[in-house]
Design brief:
Helix content: 10-25%
Number of domains: 1
Largest sheet: 4 strands, antiparallel
Number of helices: 1
Strand content: 25-35%
Radius of gyration: 14 Å
Strand order of the largest sheet: 1-2-6-5
């Protein structure tokens, strides 16, 4: 397992860019171990693979008023992501 809790590639840990490329090309056996919302030591990361989406927005309902956070497109084939630090919104 690597730092994302994902499988290894031929016994070699995969970095984040390799995992994204493997998901985009359909060559990652456990995409939902990486996609979605995941806690990290520094906060929370949200990752989405949606090839035909023009954009994806995360809505926060934990704050006094709902706030929308657009995800950043980090791969041209529709991989979007955003990191939220632990102290965000405090």
């Amino acid at each position: 397992m690597n730092e994302f809790g994902c499988s290894l590639k031929r016994g070699i840990p995969m970095n984040e860019n390799e995992i994204i490329q493997a998901i985009v090309t359909g060559n990652y056996a456990h995409p939902f171990s990486f996609l979605g919302m995941h806690k990290t030591a520094q906060g929370v990361v949200v990752r989405v693979f949606s090839p035909y989406a023009e954009g994806v927005t995360v809505l926060s309902h934990d704050m006094p008023s709902s706030i929308a956070f657009p995800l950043e497109k980090i791969h041209p084939q529709g991989f979007l992501s955003k990191f939220f630090y632990k102290n965000f919104g405090q």
